[in-house]
Specification:
Blueprint lengths: L1 E8 L3 H8 L5 H4 L3 E5 L7 E6 L6 E10 L3 E7 L6 E10 L5 E10 L3 H4 L7 H16 L2
Antiparallel strand pairs: 1-7, 2-3, 3-4, 4-5, 5-6, 6-7
């Protein structure tokens, strides 16, 4: 099960990456983000609060952080029985713009049990990407 989106942002990739790797910035561009507690650093844990599931705190771990290009957040039940992997990618283009993409893949042996409870993230990801673009380009 996978959800994804991408968008072109009229800004250098360094700016885009710097904004998405500061937890406090997410409330400025992602309309579904209530707040994120924690520091976005490799191996660190974050608590993500979302309007999509306001009564739940998502505990995630920053499992990959490639400066300037890629960030991966993971959340899983023990033994990876149900797992979500969200990847943010920032790609510098030749015309000095940036291709920003975000995708999330859900997997695991218990996916069939949780599948109906997982909302369609397509609209949420589109709103996140459009919000990021507007936030950066209006600066």
């Amino acid at each position: 099960m996978e959800f994804k989106t991408k968008i072109i942002i009229n800004a250098p990739s360094e700016i885009v990456f710097n904004i998405i790797t500061k937890a406090d910035n997410f409330v400025l561009f992602d309309p579904n983000c209530i707040k994120i507690d924690g520091e976005i650093c490799l191996g660190k844990k974050l608590s993500v609060y979302s309007r999509l599931s306001p009564n739940r705190v998502f505990k995630i771990r920053v499992s990959e952080l490639v400066p300037g290009s890629r960030m991966v957040w993971e959340s899983a039940l023990p033994f990876n029985l149900f797992k979500g992997v969200r990847t943010f990618t920032v790609l510098a283009k030749d015309d000095h713009t940036t291709e920003f993409s975000v995708n999330e893949i859900f997997s695991g042996h218990l996916l069939f049990l949780f599948k109906k409870a997982v909302p369609d993230m397509t609209d949420a990801f589109n709103l996140l990407a459009k919000g990021l673009k507007k936030h950066i380009e209006s600066r």
